[in-house]
Design a protein that fits this description.
The termini are far apart. The protein has eight helices and twelve strands. It has a domain of 133 residues.
Amino acid sequence: MEGPGSRGAGSALPWTRILVGCALAFGVVLLIGFGLAIYGVYWAVNPGRQVPTMAVVGPDSVGVVRLDRAATDPGIQDLVQEAMMAIQRAQLDAERDTLPPFLEGMRRWQLAQPAVGLGMWLPGEATLSFERRGEDERTGYVAAVNFRQFVRPVRALLERTFGSDPKTRVLVHRETRILVQPGGSGLGFSGGTLLFAERARRLTAVLDRLAEGGDAPPAPLALPELSGRWDLYGTLDRPREARSFAAPLLGEDVPSGLSRARFGLDVQTADEAHGLADFEFESADLARSARPLFATALVDWRQRAKEEAGLDVSFDESLDGQRLRTEVRLSGLRAAIARWARTAMQHTTRPGEDRGGR
């Protein structure tokens, strides 16, 4: 004989099983979703296997420019943040009469917030190699960049963007897809390292060197006393490139006999930087005769920097045999950046229109 509560207990059992099953299924789905989310974050953040960017330096290199520690250097991060905020402030000033008060207040509040996570968008290291272009004196280039994060999403975006262009040709070399543009330039990824060059064949040469030498980069060009001290530094080991480097300072009066140039830049804060320019001549006599020309040009440049950009410049120049060496200290970068941002914003406004474009 069944007790009074037996029928209720039996009828409740299937519902209990259904609820338990639903809970287990929901838990499994939740765990799968959580796992996929973790994997998605890992896929986006982790750059994967990267190669040393110095691998772009090969036998045809006539100059190298290196960027070190950009993603972790406080000075570079402060400078980039200052530049971004200066551009936003200039945009806000240009739109002051066109934005509603509420939106203008929101923009100003946004500017007051500290920029976070900027370092994740800066490269951990980058190398640019200038190379001979056949038998003529012109210069080509090949570059490599190692970003710390978001390499895979950027890769997917670039490959989709350029790959959708019918004029883009896809070249597969050593299992690496190189997107070749109509002009002959190439872009590709070796693992998590971005490679690009003005000629796609330079990328295939880099990939060949990596395959033949493993991960060990070729011996770099001489970068004496530069590595480890400067954030951005380089050497230009051919007279053509050395003269091009000196031209912004000297104009058309670059003295003869200049054979090599080296430089370094250390961004200390958003307002201060320290630089080095080292010019090597074919002989000590040529370096000695060029010294007064460089000294006069440096004084003129210091005055122009003060008048046009508000920069305070001090320098020490010295002669060491065949080499003219100049160390420069800059301060007032913050004000110079703000002035540049305002000028750039004014140039974007077409003549005859107010700032709102009316």
